[in-house]
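Hi all, posting the design record for the shared folder.

TITLE: backbone redesign
STEP: 1 of 1
STRUCTURE INPUT:
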């Protein structure tokens, strides 16, 4: 049984970020910056409350007689208690006889086109640890994109306005960035395990490294672009954020309404229709928050019992990154055009180039991960390089149509000659040859 190290990392980042945010808010209060103090506390307490609710919901504490645990959740100490509980379960393995075990069947990765199914006994303690890991994987995503991402954006914006980075603010920014990257990494691993639930997934260290580099460059450049744009065009940053958020929030619901499927009823048996609607809205809210800063890797499908689209859609990923790259380039170019003397000590062209190259480096590590390091790449029906090549061909076709070359003309140009055309050409060549011979005896 593996050590619950992921739970320890999640709780450590949660505790460190909360402590740093509370300390920084006290310094804002001493300096008389009530607005910055209120926003710092807001981006700390709201995700903390959502994390407590998520842990309570997954472990079903409301239907169990555990008043002490519920009290600790109210005091925002739930993650610490859950971490201690997980390590106590891990330490008790082998000392107490399991009252019962369950049998799980997982397929191994195909070798030479064959995939074997392996049975494994799962004890009660291991099942509880699995529940804890799944709960903290979800809370890491919530903490990252509903708390750490807005917090990092806010503190970087304050640094630009004040033209200095204090120790407390710098510490909080580093912890927030690590929390976002870790949350995005857990989101990737969670998506892989949900899509390939029938297989035994083994994620290697090289895959973790590629995901870490991919997410670090992608998220860091995205946050910097948003902050720079908001520093010169404060009025226009709100429409940009709202349009992005509304598109990603409404997209799963639009697909659900177009499918004509009945309203999902099997999320949780104890939930009413209103409760199910609230849970789905919170889920799509989190989905929109993730896509605001990076590719979510998990695609919602509300008409599916698992609420997750398990198919691999390279076109959707390619469209997302192309549009996001264009958006980042547009925002940073607008900052370059409308920048004031406030940035006179910054080499603006070099900064623009660095941000665009940084985002491109993130995309490069993403391609490396899906092409070489993905733990389930043997199950792909097509590789990402082939998918991107098809997207490029589609774009070239659209460009050709836009220039005036219709698809029929393009097909006519690319269509090979038929047998009839070849026979006519041969007869014509023979006639010309005989005519030339008769004229030159």
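Okay, here is what came back for every position:
SEQUENCE:
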């Amino acid at each position: 049984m593996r050590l619950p190290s992921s739970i320890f990392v999640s709780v450590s980042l949660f505790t460190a970020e909360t402590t740093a945010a509370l300390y920084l808010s006290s310094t804002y209060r001493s300096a008389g910056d009530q607005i910055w103090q209120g926003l710092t506390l807001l981006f700390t307490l709201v995700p903390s409350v959502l994390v407590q609710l998520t842990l309570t919901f997954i472990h079903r504490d409301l239907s169990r007689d555990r008043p002490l645990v519920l009290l600790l959740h109210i005091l925002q100490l739930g993650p610490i208690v859950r971490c201690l509980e997980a390590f106590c379960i891990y330490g008790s393995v082998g000392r107490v006889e399991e009252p019962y075990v369950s049998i799980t069947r997982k397929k191994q990765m195909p070798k030479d086109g064959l995939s074997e199914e392996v049975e494994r006994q799962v004890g009660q303690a291991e099942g509880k640890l699995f529940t804890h890991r799944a709960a903290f994987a979800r809370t890491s995503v919530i903490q990252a994109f509903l708390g750490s991402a807005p917090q990092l954006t806010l503190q970087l914006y304050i640094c630009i306005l004040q033209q200095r980075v204090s120790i407390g603010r710098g510490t909080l920014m580093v912890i927030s960035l690590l929390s976002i990257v870790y949350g995005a990494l857990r989101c990737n691993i969670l998506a892989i395990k949900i899509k390939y639930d029938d297989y035994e997934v083994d994620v290697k260290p090289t895959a973790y490294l590629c995901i870490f580099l991919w997410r670090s460059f992608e998220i860091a450049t995205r946050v910097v672009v948003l902050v720079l744009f908001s520093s010169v065009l404060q009025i226009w940053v709100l429409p940009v954020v709202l349009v992005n958020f509304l598109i990603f929030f409404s997209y799963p619901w639009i697909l659900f309404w177009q499918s004509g499927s009945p309203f999902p009823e099997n999320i949780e048996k104890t939930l009413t229709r209103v409760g199910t609607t609230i849970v789905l809205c919170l889920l799509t809210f989190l989905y929109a928050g993730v896509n605001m800063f990076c590719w979510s890797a998990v695609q919602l499908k509300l008409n599916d019992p698992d609420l997750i689209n398990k198919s691999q859609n390279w076109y959707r990923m390619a469209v997302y990154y192309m549009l996001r790259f264009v958006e980042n380039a547009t925002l940073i170019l607008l900052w370059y055009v409308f920048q004031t003397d406030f940035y006179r000590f910054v080499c603006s062209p070099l900064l623009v180039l660095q941000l665009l190259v940084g985002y491109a480096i993130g995309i490069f590590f993403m391609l490396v991960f899906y092409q070489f390091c993905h733990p389930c790449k043997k199950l792909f029906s097509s590789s990402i390089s082939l998918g991107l090549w098809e997207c490029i061909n589609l774009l070239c076709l659209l460009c050709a149509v836009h220039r005036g070359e219709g698809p029929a003309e393009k097909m006519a140009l690319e269509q090979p000659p038929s047998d009839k055309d070849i026979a006519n050409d041969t007869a014509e060549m023979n006639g010309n040859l005989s005519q030339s011979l008769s004229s030159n005896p």
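COMMENT: The CA atoms of residues 3 and 299 lie 30 Å apart.
Let me know if anyone wants the other runs.
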